[in-house]
Amino acid sequence: MKAHKYENVEFVINHSGEDGIKLSLIWRKGGLYLSLSGLFLTDGSTWYELPVKDLENITVISDEPLKLRLKIPSLDIMVSGQRAERLLALRHFLLPSISAEGGSDKLKSLLRFRALGITDPELLSKLLNVDTQNVDDLTKIAREKGLIDSEGALTEAGDSLIYLPEKREG
Amino acid sequence: MKNNSNEFSSFAETIASLGSLTKLESAVATAIKTSRVPPKETRKLLKCISVQEASNTAIFQFMKALFEKIGIGQLEIIRNDIFRFDFSIDNSPVCKLYSHVKGKKTCYITAESLAQFFSKDLGLPGTVEETACHNAGDAKCEFAVSLQPLAVYQLALDDIDKTIITGVMDGKKQIQISQGLDMTDEEILFRMNILKRYKILDDDFQITEIGETYHKYGEGIGGTEEDFQPPWRDMAKISNAISASTSFAEAFTETADKEPLWDVKEEDIVNLAEEAKKSKSFAELLSKQVKNDMEE
């Protein structure tokens, strides 16, 4: 099979089994290659193939240094490279071919208001411009995702979701 | 998802598209880094009532020139609400990079560039979604920028607005507030209409529940506002920075693209998706490899 070298990378393959165990393996140095059906990661001996049709998502998990998470069923593959723009370009190139990313702006807004102490469902429905049932649903989702605790206070995970990145120097 | 084994049309087209996207990524990063906008200018945009008014602001003219310089296309505002701005791009250059994709939205890089500009340069975090795309069969590409309400309230309302809100809450009449601020009746009416648009005041210019909440929780957020001079509007300086970064990206991409094609032997390939289905055996395989790596 033909492959074109795209970038020098470090990568790690995490496996999540039926019992929920995750194996966090060591980072390997190697290369990211393109084939006509997808991607290859190689450490020089084994060539790990990631067909595009099996990719479920590609997310940025860290800006500096840039790290991408490529998700396929039962596996998380983390990739880091020297040139952020090369990996970001690859992500934007592949995104239309895989499932769309979900937006959660209403959930984040709900958390921001709750962080300020605003918990009244009717007031929240006005501020979020949704009906009170939606506020209840969003609150339930926030609780299920562990973003708020049983008393409605933001958890650490909830705090980190609404954390604003520092502005860059102008 | 396509079922055929070839996801991309050809190596040449794929590599060319990735090269163009790499240049765009460099340009976006440089542009965002050099284009922070003073809050008072963002406030002018937020207070615009019509699309035409918003399109004529200095900040949008700057934004339009910036995105064109990046290579994303010509932005137009097509909707402005208090927490949402919609933009369109006719004949988007980004669309042309996805010749292998049909019937789907493709302009994720444009959406993320808008999100970064609003968040990092205007101080307005939110989410951006492509709502229409030429590659999906729509006439133009369109993007909806949904802003976080708290950040909007924090930036949109200035000290004069806060004085007006306090005056209304203290039961002062319109004329008393205008005299206290040394403003004409027209000026105070204009201000109060904007507060009405932001649902801080109701149709009778009385404080609303949202207004009370803002007064109680929102006014103190944010601290001292920064003001600074260009480069935010110095397009020549920004253009030079973008050109330098894209030239570097181009040179690097050209070198990388000259790499020869590798012939990968079938026996050396592990298909991760297939192997992951054999959950336990694959976990064992990876564990063994880690052991070997440790021993080495």
Would you write up a description of this structure?
The complex is a heterodimer of chains A (170) and B (296). With 170 residues, chain A is of the alpha+beta class. Chain A folds into two domains: 94 residues, Pleckstrin-homology domain (PH domain)/Phosphotyrosine-binding domain (PTB) (PH-domain like, Roll); 57 residues. Helices cover 29% and strands 32% of the residues of chain A. Chain A has five helices and eight strands; from the N terminus they run E-E-E-E-E-E-E-E-H-H-H-H-H. In chain A, strands 1, 2, 3, 4, 5, 6, 7 and 8 form an eight-stranded antiparallel β-sheet that branches. With 296 residues, chain B is an alpha+beta fold. Among the domains of chain B are: 143 residues, Muramoyl-pentapeptide Carboxypeptidase, domain 2 (2-Layer Sandwich); 62 residues, Arc Repressor Mutant, subunit A (Orthogonal Bundle), CATH 1.10.10. Helices cover 54% and strands 11% of the residues of chain B. Chain B has 13 helices and six strands. Chain B has a four-stranded antiparallel β-sheet. In chain B, a hairpin with an 8-residue loop joins strand 3 and strand 4. The two termini of chain B are 41 Å apart. The mean pLDDT of chain B is 85. Chains A and B meet through strand 1, strand 3, strand 5, helix 1 and helix 2 of A and helix 1, helix 5, strand 3, helix 10 and helix 11 of B. Strand 5 of chain A pairs parallel with strand 6 of chain B.
